[in-house]
Amino acid sequence: MFSDTLTNLFQLTLSGLAVGSIYAVVALGFVILYKATDIFNFAQGELMTLGAFIGYFFIVQLHIPIFWAFLLTFVTTALIGLVIEELFFRPMVGEPIFSVIMVTVGLSIFLKGFIGFSWGSMIKKFPSFVSEEPIHFSGLVVSPGHLVTIIAAGILILIFAIFFKFSSMGIGMRAVANDQDASMLVGISVRKIFGLSWIISGIVAAIGGILLSNITYLHPSLSSVGIKVFPAVVLGGLDSIAGAIVGGLIIGVVENIAGGYLGGDVKEITSFVILIAILMIKPYGLFGKEEIERV
Amino acid sequence: MRSGDYNTTYKEEISIFQTSFVKCCVGIFIVALVGFVLVADNYFVYIVNLCLIATIGALGLNILTGLTGQISIGHAAFLAIGAYASAILVKYGFPFFLALPLSGLIATVCGFVVGIPSLKLKGLYLAITTFAFGFIVEHVANMWVSLTNGANGMMVLPASIFGICFDTDHTFFFLVFPITVLAVIYARNLVRSKLGRAWIAIRDRDLAAETMGIDLCRYKLSAFALSSFYAGIAGALYAHYMQFIGPTHFELYLSVQYLAMIIIGGLGSILGSIFGAVFMTILPELLKYLPDLFRESYPVIVQRFADINLMLYGTIIMFFVIIEPKGLYGIWNNTKVYWRMWPYTH
Fold this sequence. Notes:
The structure holds 2 protein chains of 2 kinds.
Chain A: H1 4-37, H2 44-61, H3 66-89, H4 97-119, E1 135-137, E2 140-142, H5 144-166, H6 168-178, H7 180-185, H8 190-215, H9 223-226, H10 229-236, H11 241-262, H12 264-281
Antiparallel strand pairs in A: 1-2
Chain B: H1 10-13, H2 20-39, H3 42-67, H4 75-91, H5 96-118, H6 123-143, H7 145-148, E1 154-155, E2 159-161, E3 164-166, H8 169-191, H9 194-204, H10 206-211, H11 216-242, E4 244-245, H12 252-265, H13 270-287, H14 290-294, H15 299-303, H16 305-322, H17 327-341
Antiparallel strand pairs in B: 1-4, 2-3
Helix pairs in contact in B: 3-8, 3-11, 3-12, 3-13, 4-5, 4-6, 4-11, 5-11, 9-11, 12-13, 12-16, 12-17, 13-17
């Protein structure tokens, strides 16, 4: 139907979209947290990996049926998010940005050690919950894993769009993101919102981790894939949910195409080169709000 | 300052050694260290050397992050650049005493390049830029096989100046120790100069500093340049000491280790950099004895010992940031003040 080069490009774009939609999901958790609490979480990649390993723990090690296992995973990661907030970030409210960043860096190192300690460094296969028979579609090959990833990411994003638009909690979170003092004045519990953001961030990270390990493998180094969300969120703008999604998709596709044409080595650094370029040209990203500082 | 001491001129107040007592202490410490190295066995001298190299790198990072307030999560990149530059220069026949400063200068140039976005970006965004830079350098070291021998790493010739070869632990000490002393004195002098005061002003509030007439562009870039010069020198010394370098030596983990050094030691303090460097170098060595305790009862712990190390590092970093933000330097000061008045402390 298409010429070979065009088919190749479409193929690369398609698998790029699958990876990109995972970036988008992880970036979503990241942006929600940043928007509400102003915390730039360097541990998001580790949180994602931890989520995937907890899913693995429930499904493979405890033999719990897949639906309940996922539910348990989400509950566990939500609790982990809450504990992290209570233990490490509650004392940091009002501290300089450097200290907060360093706590997240410390947290990421800690979680990396914890994951390695609990599950070892052998490569594991995440139990596949979709068939592995590839689907052929007018010359293109799509694996069901990728398709499920794209669909799941789409649904998740839709849920969050509705949550932020219509639920009172979602509106409260947007209010806190906008102005903490003002939202306190109108009776929103900023404390609760902070906790809630960490809970959502934890759950979303787990979803991202499960989707990612489903199409790749399960290993502590998965968190280095999570790091790719930095370029995605910066491209989209740190405080924009739409930006996280668009940024994630763009980074996934561009990276995959660059990898396809220029080789796997280049693929690894493409997103970081894009990141630096964007920071130089348009530091607040595509949809980010520009900060204006007053003396 | 201890009670009874007072300054009558500004010159006294900004002097390097506040009292002759402090001067004596430093003198005794230096003599004791050299004496220790002369009698100690290889392993202890090896640790001393690593501490000294780490001190140089930590001083550099403290200038940038502690004094000027520009967060860098990619310090390992500058160490890598210095290490590879010096290793490659010496490999192609450059004498070491030229290659060492040259590698520092090459790192400085890279520091300038990374510093340029800092003029536009602040805090968070700068942290991300340096983070990305660290990744890019690590991958370039992996990919540029013709120059760096890629992931296999490259052998490095030992340092030698005018025919004296610094290839043992003991001889290397006499190369790295004077360099470290120079680095400490230079940094100490910078802090009390115009440059240092400008940096501190930028750290405290850059807009206010700018309105007072401090040229942000110049001072931020100078902090970046100097910090990467220090890192480059530290990297080059490390390369010639280990006589082998590979991309895995300069991962993100190393950057975090250096950040941990300056946080644990004390941000913006020269003495703190030394404390932090020594602490973070000795800690892993001490931890090596830990598995022996558990070898019989918990064999799993021995296998996954590296991961326990990571968990411990993470915890230490978080502990110091949350509980003791002034670091070891703050603890040191508090203890000093406590004992000075003892037993009449209020």
